[in-house]
Specification:
Distance between the termini: 45 Å
Structural class: alpha+beta
Number of helices: 24
Helix content: 55-70%
Largest sheet: 5 strands, antiparallel
Number of strands: 10
Strand content: 5-15%
Length: 659
């Protein structure tokens, strides 16, 4: 083969293969990837010449030459059969490896780099788990040790040390787990409560670079003074004190450089560990490890963006002002013009964290402070719908004037009006000791499974009420643990926003215990609910509610007479009709159209197949060649068409969502 011949062959392939690929895509009626369509075109081109030669061989054998018209029809038939073979290859690919399941080369390169980084981090985490003796528990082994208190204490200590060694993401995870008294044994909660979110200080040159990039100016141009030594250094950000040009004292929170990448890697590992725990251990399945991991990841990603924290502070303060209790617990004001994703500038509150105050220190009326703090959080959850999701002792300040202040709004929860109303009814049902009302309120708050034994659930709630809310029975925080156990036994799942509210209430319980030992949150919650309901039932509140309802009804009442007049007029003249739009939803119409399309194609393919068999079975008739009659030729053509339609139906079955 000469070079010129090779050149013409390559040019022919380059020109003809795209045509075959286009034919395969059009006949299948799908958006195929260029690579997959190209493979089908190459297969069709490779098969075309042998097929045409085999079909036309009888003409050359018996006539010695190829008559033009029969040869043309046989070439067309051979090309169609070659396209059919190419389509068959594509359909086999779709059946074995559906489109979208194989990543592209660029994605594979990025995935390889990502996997390399993940493997390095995995090796670090594995060494930590091995050093702390945690690997057997991840495999579901050594379960007997968890049946004893000493075994649980030892495991809890190993877990705390492993989380501390793991860094920022795992420390945050441990702090979240420390608030889940509804899920973890007391030994784990007590041990994980000792996790400290301390980190080495970031050198000033790196902090200055972050400030310069965030503020768009030099530090000395924005601030009158700036303390280069941080007030506190945590794993996500560190805090500096400063003074604005106006003389106002502020606190500047600066996110640590490169923390986003580290958190992204670690969250991927946390997700994989959660899936392994849920798959391998009964404990992981019981606590819903995957859902817990997803909620934690979402909250931590929000915490990384300091602009969200600034918005949260403004929103919580505004909601308290609307409710009429501004300033009950101080919330720092932000300087929005100076807040970015990496920098947060806010008012400085002078005070001490509750975690740094000794239990026997004289700080005023502890019970009154505890009531104020608890009523503030409960009001945020039950009335305002936006609340501080992490009120641990380090985030609550006792100010110099005796007031309380809240810090760190990186994580807040939000509850819509419908869920708030259901929560209020739930607390009211518990207060009244009404199992039926508690059953109805729970089903409004929680996500129910497809199959739920409601009588059994109501009986379980009745026993719960008799055990914890009967006359003369003192309230006990353990009632929440029993309530969650009932929820888990009946397959009910807690929505993320409700889980966040319970987490905040569990966290505030520990804070209140440190602030005012002996403070009973159940009694205070009952008092709060009673006061709130009394306020809602006051004449002024009822008048306002009635006025609001009437205002919303006025437009409908205005339209009602005209509509009644039209209805009565239609009845009088016998023209009243009812219009029903079937398949008004576009997705329903699209599904029905696709189903009819597949049925029609299937019917046509079957019909053409039967007709081709009948035509091939006929004897006699005009001859196209010495051995092939016109009926047989038509039968072969119909068979090709039937094959094309059948392959199109098959590929629609393998990829029903394709358009």
């Amino acid at each position: 083969m000469t070079g010129l011949t090779i050149l013409f062959f390559v040019l022919g392939v380059v020109l003809i293969v795209p045509l075959y690929a286009f034919g395969v895509r059009r006949l299948l009626g799908l958006r195929l990837s260029p690579l997959r369509a190209l493979i089908g075109g190459i297969v069709a081109l490779a098969c075309a010449s042998p097929i045409i030669t085999a079909i036309g061989g009888s003409i050359a054998k018996h006539n010695g030459k190829w008559p033009f018209l029969p040869a043309l029809w046989f070439v067309i038939l051979g090309v169609a059969i070659a396209l059919l073979v190419g389509m068959l290859v594509v359909v086999i690919f779709e059946a074995l490896v559906p489109s979208g399941t194989m990543p592209g080369p660029l994605y594979l390169i990025r995935a390889l780099r990502k996997r390399t980084r993940r493997v390095r981090r995995y090796s670090q985490i594995s060494r930590i788990l091995l050093r702390r003796g945690m690997l057997p528990y991840l495999r579901g082994a050594r379960r007997a040790e968890l049946q004893t208190r000493d075994g649980r204490v030892a495991l809890a200590r190993s877990l705390r040390l492993a989380l501390e060694d793991g860094g920022v993401t795992f420390i945050k995870l441990g702090q979240v787990l420390a608030t889940r008294r509804d899920l973890l044994p007391a030994e784990f909660v007590d041990e994980l409560s000792g996790l400290q979110d301390n980190a080495p200080q970031v050198p000033w040159p790196e902090v200055e670079q972050v400030l310069r990039a965030g503020l768009g100016a030099e530090v000395d141009d924005v601030f009158q003074s700036f303390d280069r030594t941080p007030l506190a250094a945590a794993s996500i950000a560190q805090v500096h004190t400063a003074t604005l040009g106006s003389g106002e004292r502020v606190v500047v929170k600066v996110r640590r450089p490169g923390i986003e990448t580290v958190v992204a890697w670690d969250l991927d590992i946390v997700d994989r560990l959660a899936r392994r725990l849920q798959r391998s251990t009964r404990w992981g399945r019981g606590v819903g490890a995957v859902d817990l991991s997803n909620g934690f990841a979402e909250a931590l990603r929000e915490e990384l963006d300091l602009r969200i924290e600034a918005q949260n502070m403004t929103a919580v303060a505004a909601a308290a002002a609307v409710r009429g209790v501004p300033g009950a617990v101080r919330i720092p004001k932000t300087h929005a013009s100076l807040c970015t994703a990496n920098v947060l500038v806010m008012e400085r509150l002078d005070g001490r964290a509750l975690g740094a105050i000794n239990p026997d220190e004289q700080i005023g009326d502890r019970q009154a402070l505890a009531r104020t703090l608890f009523d503030t959080l409960l009001g945020e959850v039950m009335i305002e719908g936006i609340f501080h999701a992490d009120p641990h002792p380090g985030n609550v300040l006792l100010l110099a004037d005796g007031q309380l202040g809240l810090l760190d709004f990186g994580s807040v929860g939000r509850i819509d009006a419908g869920l708030r109303s259901a929560l209020q009814r739930l607390l009211l049902a518990v207060d009244r000791g009404d199992p039926a009302a508690l059953h109805d309120a729970l089903l409004e708050v929680l996500q129910r499974p497809e199959e739920l034994d409601e009588p059994a659930l109501e009986r379980a709630l009745g026993r719960f009420m008799a055990r914890h809310v009967g006359a003369g029975i003192p309230p006990d925080v353990r009632m929440f643990t029993d309530l969650f156990r009932i929820v888990a036994e009946h397959g009910l799942s807690v929505p993320p926003e409700i889980a966040g509210a319970f987490r905040a209430l569990a966290t505030i319980e520990g804070t209140l215990t440190q602030l005012a030992p002996g403070f009973d949150i159940l009694i205070q919650a009952r008092l709060f609910t009673t006061a709130y309901l009394a306020e809602q039932l006051s004449p002024e509140a009822l008048r306002k509610s009635a006025t609001d309802e009437l205002i919303s009804l006025v437009p409908m009442l205005r339209r009602l007479p005209r509509r009644l007049d039209r209805i009565t007029g239609s009845l009088e003249h016998g023209r009243l009709g009812l219009n029903i739009r079937l398949l008004a939803d576009q997705s329903d119409r699209r599904y029905l159209t696709g189903l009819v399309h597949q049925l029609v194609l299937t019917f046509l393919a079957a019909t053409l197949g039967v007709m081709s068999v009948l035509m091939l079975g006929l004897h006699g008739g005009p001859r196209v060649t010495h051995t092939i009659t016109l009926y047989a030729f038509i039968g072969y053509c119909l068979l090709v068409f039937a094959g094309i339609l059948a392959l199109r139906v098959l590929v629609l079955v393998f990829r029903p969502a394709a358009d």
